[in-house]
Amino acid sequence: MPKTHSYHDYLIQSLQEIEESAAYIQAILEEEAPEPELLLTVLRDVVKSQSEVSTIAEEDRQNWEKIQELLKASGGEEIYRFIGLLKTLGLKTEIVVSQNSTPEAAILENPSIANALAAQ
User: Fold this and answer.
1) Short-list 68, 55, 41, 38, CA closest to 106
2) Which residue, among 96, 115, 88, has the nearest Cα to 24 in the 3D structure?
3) Cα(98)–Cα(94) distance, rounded to whole angstroms?
4) How far apart are CA 96 and CA 84, in angstroms?
5) pLDDT reported for residue 54
6) What distance in Å separates the CA atoms of residue 17 and residue 7, rounded to the nearest whole number?
7) What is the CA radius of gyration of the chain?
8) SS3 letters for 23-66?
9) What's the pLDDT at 27?
10) For residue range 44-57, what is the model confidence (pLDDT) as tens digits?
11) Residue 55: predicted pLDDT
């Protein structure tokens, strides 16, 4: 009998592709009737998926924990207010993959990763 995989497992696996992660975050930010509490869920999924394919430095992990605390307290409402203000001003946010999205480029761009690797 074939094993079935949960949708969440499939989602986490698909989000390992950085382009999928960017599109997933962009979609939640573009919702016409946003549900701010879903933002934290989306970010958790992306962080989980990306941490399975690359190492997250301790400093970045601590930043993520702080962001989680802030989003739990506010529900992310201020982010949607900011996006709404930008829309009113004729502007928008866009989540895109950085030009240097390879692990090697991330090391060069982020000194905390290089320091963590050097300490090993």
Assistant:
1) 55
2) 96
3) 12
4) 19
5) 83
6) 16
7) 16
8) HHHHHHHCCCCCCHHHHHHHHHHHHHHHHHHCCCCHHHHHHHHH
9) 95
10) 999 999 988 888 88
11) 82
Residue 113 in tokens: 């990763």
Residue 107, amino acid: I
What is the rounded distance in angstroms from the CA atom of residue 100 to the CA atom of residue 104? Answer: 8
Residue with tokens 């480029």: 105
What lies within 8 Å, CB to CB, of 99 at 6+ separation is: 105
pLDDT of residue 119: 58
pLDDT at 34: 85
Amino acid at residue number 109: E
Question: How many Å from the N-terminal Cα to the C-terminal Cα in the chain?
Answer: 44
Low-confidence ranges of the chain (pLDDT < 70): 1-4, 101-120
